[in-house]
Amino acid sequence: MGKKDIAAKMYLRNNAVFADLVNVALYGGEQEVFPEDLTEMDTNEILMWESVWGSEKGLSSNRKKAGKEKSRHTVAAQRFRDGLKLLSHMSDGEQEYLILGIEPQSYPNYAMPVRTMLWDSLTYDRQIRNRGRQRREQRIRQSSAEFLSGFGKEDRLIPVSSIVVNLSEKQWDGPLSLYDMLAIQDSGIMSWVNDYRIHLIDPYAMSLEELNLFRTDLGNVLKFIMCSGDSDRLEQIVREDPRFQHMSREAVEMINTYTNTKLEYKVYEGSEVNMCKAIDDLKKRERQEAILESAKKLLNFVSPEIIAQSLELPLETVLRLK
Fold first, then answer.
1. pTM of the prediction?
2. Which residues pair with 75 in a beta bridge?
3. Which structural domain, as residue segments, surrounds residue 311?
């Protein structure tokens, strides 16, 4: 797992951030999901199937010619989701459940609809297998069809939904649905093909008003990523938004990791970071590095004493550049 994946997983698994993302992605910013509604789930999904294919090893010549010998091989596919939580909340007086997956992407993934479809399918498959095991352990009376299905006629699945978050350096230009990936667009054929869409959070396609719907510092992280290529606009946004004065350490680590920004910071009371001060310190450090680089080049032509006096640097600093 890469550095970016680890940073995103650690940050987004926070229930407050996870709930905030779900509220913006699925409910337009309305507070429908709360941190206490979420329970961590195992992100490891395993699918096993049997493939049957011919094998000639160790067969007699007659059996080889007949082509009747088959060997069975069990193949296991393993997929890890970056974040998976069970949402439990009340709706119309009844308890409802939803399994939510979050998939942060450090680059546009042009196969994302199929990948998301596979992740969601594996989650449904696990529910079916778990239910089949429960029925066997509880010795539930079942019909032959239920026994063969591993799932009862009255059993029901918990719905699954995945949210893709674009954390790359550019706007998402990949497909948003399975239909976008298909070569055939004939309406007659397409009417028989099921589509599968992804729920995408892309800061480059969102206005500042939409990004302000976030109530945690996730909105600030997305703003920083969106403006990381425009230093003037970035500095303006940071200084105008008071929420940048109260960022979590994990959020700043996300910014440093995904934008390659070398923000140095101090954690203040309540584990908060003032991004305005962090940016000021970064600019000072960049100016100092530029001055030192100029001084290093001048050493080929001018004495260290003159350089130190002209650039207002300690003579010892200039001498160390030799």
1. 0.73
2. 49
3. 208-322
